[in-house]
Write a structure and sequence with these properties.
- The complex is a heterodimer of chains A (about 550) and B (about 190).
- In chain A, the strands form three sheets. In chain A, strands 1, 2, 6, 7, 8, 9 and 17 form a seven-stranded mixed β-sheet that branches. A six-stranded antiparallel β-sheet of chain A has the order 5-11-12-13-10-16.
- In chain A, α1 runs parallel beside α7.
- The mean pLDDT of chain A is about 95.
- Chain A has twelve helices and 17 strands.
- Chain A has a single domain (about 5-545), classed as FAD/NAD(P)-binding domain.
- Chain A is α/β, with parallel strands linked by helices.
- Chain B has one domain (about 10-25, about 40-170).
- The longest helix of chain B is centred in the middle third of the chain and has 19 residues, at about 85-105.
- Chain B is globular.
- The chains are: A alpha/beta (about 550), B mainly alpha (about 190).
- The interface of A and B includes residues 46 and 393 of A.
- The complex binds flavin-adenine dinucleotide.
- The site of flavin-adenine dinucleotide (FAD) has 42 residues of chain A, from α1, α3, β7, α8 and α12.
Chain lengths: ~550, ~190
């Protein structure tokens, strides 16, 4: 039986897609929300570090699976290699209802005002497609607020002099620091940094009918055992479903965006949970499949109107892939600083996110989430044994005496870091897979050293007896913080969508995920992606209320 | 790791299983006298080599070593599961690793004493044997893979066959069941 046509299709139920589903469904549009994965459950995964979404040496519990999915990774010399989802070169985020928002650490950053106008603030950068966003922080501010209140963020900006202006406080009080956090907080103050508690998509008090955080060790990479971590899977998606207007179709792989002979999008084709090929028609299609899968889907949707992939007249789809050039410093202490109060990350400074002399951009600096026992085996100081008696001895002492500071350095986007589709490798459904290639610019590494200096100074002040820095390699970024591949802009020649996420030249095709980012900020991206979900939805709903049926 | 702690009956049973292999004579594993699950992907010879490797990579001290923590069972289970892509590398490299020790120490790896095993593995790790190759595999990279897998088997979740009774968590002083906590509270 053919599917009935609906008002809107959303592809992907992650950070952006979950928000759009709720907004449109509650506004009265009939919605089908497609998700290639299923529901992730604590009872199924529990506390298994080896399949958690952080180091996943065996496989990724939150998907995608190694059986049906693959990608092609291209190295510096142009050599291609087939990679599976639990290989770092796959650049995975997740594939389940809620995607990364189920298993993330939940840092809930608003980008700063400068993050939206990087070119105006810093000028052009050689080799980079650095540009301003077509919208400002102030355009997005109300939508950040909505994300904070509807999904739930604990935080308090009063200790962060660099926080962008806000109209309403966070809905929940900020988290307190654990033992390590307190040591680092004091040290930061001593050297004139401005430490504060990281805003978190986690309940510091009961909120949204769910209990407060119980501070387990296994937080980032895991499902929360009590549901105190807030993602789209336990907030907006359930609201969308309860509205009666949203049908969530899990285990459905969307493979093509359909277009008619007048150049309008009519729906999508997909494989259902039994691998049956089907079509779903709609007035509007919103892509929220992530910064790697959204461009793949577009490039795999070629037609007479768009021979090189839908929305790709100017070859910008899939370009400017970026993540963050993570860097920082680790420190070993001569006393125990570990009190097993999770999730670990809680203290940050925004002092070096911008306005750094001689540096373009910068990064927030935070202490790290608890490194779990297996991951910690690779986190010992340099020049110490990696196996044997001493490694084992160090493992049990250092586990209680090591801290780590990390900063997501804002990368300078470049046109050659990109997602393409492979000519010869296909997935389980016979669809060409994403091929990922590119590099970081020297500028990113220079900034990483600048930030690592600041982290080392902080570690020193905290009393670490041995300090070692962490600088990223020059390979392309993406993974958990993937973004930028369908940037929004005012000029259709140098962007993929307009400022409302509408794909240029197509009235009824939208994007609402990390792909839209022009630049990825000096912060983790998810709250910005959620805010963009509200922003794009708001435009669609206003048009809808004015009678625009998007040609369908 | 000596025949001494195996009953004659066990030894006969094991010999019968091992008949046909050239390099197994006279070794066994301590656990063979305990009741243990049969291996699924490893032969007993291969398992014995991994036992020895696991005890070098995570040696017994006040706490059990890799072998007693079930690392070999982890590898056995995973080579038929998530790590099946490594199965042929193990099948090729384990006997090669064991036999190549002869040229250096006059005995297969599993018959070396602890100190000799350690120096042999250090040499392997540093690439000193990389002028030979084990089938298509490089000795130093195989060692590196085994090292990673032993760490997973020792420090990962018991559901995958290793870390018996969460022994490594006990060693690290970590509770297995995570009680609700509060920052600031002792
Ligand atoms: C372990 C971990 C920790 C993290 N910690 C943080 C943090 O602390 N702070 C922060 O800001 N960010 C964090 N992130 C990143 C955050 O999760 C992402 O930025 C965010 O989820 C990206 O949102 P998105 O909407 O662009 O894509 P996603 O959330 O990835 O959503 C895309 C969805 O589309 C689905 N999909 C893809 N293709 C198809 C298709 N063809 N058909 C159907 N469905 C499809 C996918 O399965 C997925 O569910 C973390 C991520 C991970 C994995």
């Amino acid at each position: 039986m053919a599917n009935t046509k609906v008002d809107a299709i959303i592809v992907g139920s992650g950070a952006g897609g979950g928000v759009v589903a709720k907004e449109l469904a509650v506004a009265g549009l009939s919605v089908v929300l497609f998700e290639r994965g299923g529901w992730a459950r604590y009872s199924e995964h529990r506390d298994d570090e080896l399949t958690a979404q952080r180091s996943f040496p065996l496989h990724c519990y939150f998907g995608p699976d190694n059986e049906r999915y693959r990608r092609v990774a291209v190295d510096h010399d142009g050599n291609e290699r087939i990679v599976l989802p639990n290989d770092w070169a796959y650049h995975n985020n997740a594939a389940c209802v809620g995607s990364g928002t189920v298993c993330y650490g939940g840092m809930a950053w608003r980008f700063m005002e400068e993050d939206f106008k990087m070119k105006t603030v810093y000028g052009s950068v050689e080799g980079s497609t650095l540009d301003d966003w077509p919208i400002s922080y102030h355009d997005l501010e109300p939508y950040y607020e909505k994300a904070e209140w509807e999904i739930g963020v604990a935080g308090n900006d009063s200790l962060n002099p660099f926080a962008p202006p806000r109209k309403r406080p966070h809905p929940m009080p900020a988290f307190e620091h654990n033992k390590e956090g307190r040591i680092l907080e004091n040290a930061a103050r001593e050297i004139g940094y401005h430490p504060f508690s990281i805003p978190m998509l986690r309940n510091s008090i009961p909120y949204g009918d769910r209990p407060e955080c119980i501070h387990v060790r296994n937080c980032v990479g895991f499902v929360c055992p009590v549901g105190a971590k807030n993602g789209t899977h336990n907030t907006v998606i359930p609201t969308a479903i309860r509205s009666g207007n949203c049908e969530l179709r899990t285990d459905c792989q969307v493979t093509e965006i359909l277009i008619n002979d007048r150049g309008r999008v009519t729906g999508v084709s997909y494989f259902d949970q039994n691998d049956q090929k089907k079509e779903q028609h709609a007035r509007i299609v919103i892509l929220a499949a992530s910064a790697t899968e959204t461009p793949r889907l577009m490039l795999n949707s070629a037609s007479r109107f768009f021979p090189d992939g839908i929305g790709n007249r100017n070859d910008w789809v899939g370009r400017n892939l970026q993540g963050h050039a993570y860097c920082g410093a680790d420190g070993l202490f001569d006393k125990d600083i570990y009190d097993d109060v999770g999730p670990g990350a809680s203290v940050a400074v925004s002092d070096f996110a911008h306005n750094n002399p001689g540096v373009i951009g910068g990064a927030v600096l935070c202490n790290e989430f608890i490194r779990l026992p297996y991951a910690f085996t690779g986190a010992h100081p340099p020049n110490t044994p990696s196996w044997g008696k001493e490694h084992k001895k160090n493992q049990r002492t250092y586990f209680h005496r090591t801290a780590s500071l990390r900063g997501p350095v804002q990368e300078m986007p470049n046109f050659e870091s990109r997602v393409e589709v492979s000519q010869n490798v296909r997935d389980h459904w016979g669809v060409p897979v994403a091929k990922i290639s590119g590099f970081k610019l020297d500028e990113d590494i220079r900034t990483a050293h600048f930030i690592a200096d600041k982290a080392e100074k902080w570690m020193e002040a905290a009393g670490a007896v041995k300090i070692w820095r962490n600088i990223p390699d020059t390979g392309v970024s993406g993974s958990q913080h993937q973004s930028g591949t369908c940037r929004m802009g005012n000029d259709p020649k140098t962007s993929v969508t307009d400022k409302y996420g509408r794909v240029h030249d197509i009235d009824n095709l939208f994007i609402a995920d990390g792909s839209l980012h022009v630049t990825n900020g000096a912060f983790n991206p998810v709250l910005t992606i959620m805010a963009l979900g509200y922003w794009v939805s708001d435009y669609i709903i206003k048009e809808w209320e004015h009678g625009n049926r998007f040609g369908g | 790791m000596s025949t001494g702690d195996v009953s004659r009956r066990d030894f006969l049973k094991l010999s019968a299983i091992w008949a046909g292999s050239a390099w197994i004579v006279g070794f066994t594993t301590a656990s063979s006298s305990n009741h243990r699950e049969p291996y699924r992907t490893l032969t007993d010879e291969e398992a014995a080599i991994i036992d020895a490797l696991a005890d070098q990579i995570i040696p017994p001290d006040e706490y059990p070593g890799g072998k007693d923590a079930g690392v070999t069972h982890f590898v056995d289970q995973q080579l038929g599961g998530y790590l099946k892509g490594f199965a042929s590398e193990y099948k090729t490299c384990l006997p090669a690793l064991n036999n190549d020790a002869e040229s250096r120490f006059g005995k297969p790896f599993i018959h070396l004493d602890e100190r000799e095993q350690y120096s042999y593995l250090s040499e392997l790790e540093s690439g000193q044997f990389d002028n030979t190759s084990w089938g298509p595999y490089r000795p130093s990279s195989f060692f590196n893979i085994v090292r990673h897998h032993c760490m997973m088997g020792f420090y990962g979740s018991p559901v995958h066959g290793g870390n018996k009774e969460y022994i490594s968590y006990q060693m690290l002083g970590l509770s297995v069941v995570q009680e609700p906590k509060r920052p600031g509270a002792p």
